[in-house]
C-alpha cells in the first residue's frame, strides 16, 4: 500500500511540471532579441499602439531581454522620437497544440509608469521560435473583422 501511495504521489508531481516542449521553448527564448519589424495581414495605414505603450514605429528596433527562470523580461524603446527607456514585464508560455507548435504567450507589464490603467496582460500567439528568429501574432478586431499583427524578432 505504501509503495502505491508513493507511486501515485510521484506521478502527480511529474504531471504538474511544464511539458518538454515548453521547457525547450523557454531555453530558446532566453537572452537578447531585437524587434525588427511589425507587419499586418491587411494592407493599409493603421494607427496601432502596441501593449498600451507606444506606436509600431517606436517598437521597431526595440531590444528585448527574456529571463525564463523567473519569467521576467525587459524591453527597451530606443527610437529618439518616442518615449524611450526600459519597460519591465512578466511572461508565460502556455502550450496550445503540440502538432502545430503554436503557443499562447501572455505578457504583462510590471512598470507602474508604463502599466495600463486596468493592469491587464496581453495574450499573443508565439507562432515561430528558433535559435535566431521569433514571431508573435496578435489578432484584434477592426471594423468587426479579424486583424492580425505580426511582431518579428531576431536574436
Architecture overview:
The longest helix is centred in the N-terminal third of the chain and has 15 residues, at 2-16. This protein has an 8-stranded antiparallel β-barrel with strand order 1-4-5-6-7-8-9-10. A two-stranded antiparallel ribbon has the order 2-3. It has 155 residues and is an alpha+beta fold. The protein has a single domain (20-154), classed as Lipocalin (Beta Barrel), CATH 2.40.128.280. Helices cover 19% and strands 48% of the residues. Mean pLDDT is 79; it is low at 1-20. It has helices spanning 2-16, 20-29, 56-59, and strands spanning 31-40, 49-50, 54-55, 62-67, 72-77, 85-97, 102-109, 122-129, 133-142, 145-154. Keywords: Signal.
Task: Identify the CATH architecture.
Answer: Beta Barrel
Molecular shape:
globular
State the strand order across the main sheet. Answer: 1-4-5-6-7-8-9-10
CATH class: Mainly Beta
Order of helices and strands: HHEEEHEEEEEEE
The tally of helices reads 3
End-to-end C-alpha gap: 52 Å
Considering DSSP H and I runs of 4 or more, what fraction of the residues is helical? 10-25%
Q: What structural class do you assign from the helix and strand content?
A: alpha+beta
Number of beta strands: 10
Query: What fraction strand?
Result: over 45%
Q: Compute the CA-based radius of gyration.
A: 18 Å
Point out poorly predicted stretches.
Answer: 1-20
| Major sheet details | 8 strands, antiparallel, barrel
The average pLDDT is 79
CATH topology: Lipocalin
Total number of distinct structural domains: 1
